[in-house]
Give the backbone structure.
Amino acid sequence: MANLETRSQLRAICPCCFGQWAVKGEWIVDHGYTIRGYGFRNGSCYGAGKAHFGTEAGRDIAARIAVELDTTAAGFEKRAVDVKAGTEPVYDRRGNVIAAPVYAIEAEARSYRRSAATIRERLATWKPADPVEVKLEKTGPAVHFRAKVYGVLGKMCAGSARETFFHLTDDRSKVTCSRCLSRLAKRDAKTAEVVK
């Protein structure tokens, strides 16, 4: 993809997922979401909008998250014991009592305990840290190759229907979508075999 220009971005560590994300001031920007369908966001990291891990406030947030994870794990452990003893029923979607897979409840508790332990390990080595500057390439939207896919005129990579009529070209030199380029290369290879 052609580089339009470069820019700088300040990034720091999220106190929840410990990924490096952009910051505004000392606050981690929204991240950890997916965009589906017509552009609606689904989910978000618990650390979004909170102070980054390099600050004392961020360190305290991470410590609170570890405590919350342990509390949740304890709840799952108690539930597993109660389900094993038969004192807590488990219901299916229709409201029927079912034999619960206790191993799944115990696995959930172990997962929360491991996450809490990982956060505590990071807290043990915590030092104040400023955000770091990262150079990024500003790029434009992917340009797709116009093709007939399944009898419908659209883009060659046949991805999102929402983008079908945007950023299309018949000029191969302007295509920047890696999937379209890959499919063009495969089509060229097949054509070359037929010609032989």
Remarks:
- The two ends are 32 Å apart (CA to CA).
- Residues 73 and 111 are 8 Å apart (CA to CA).
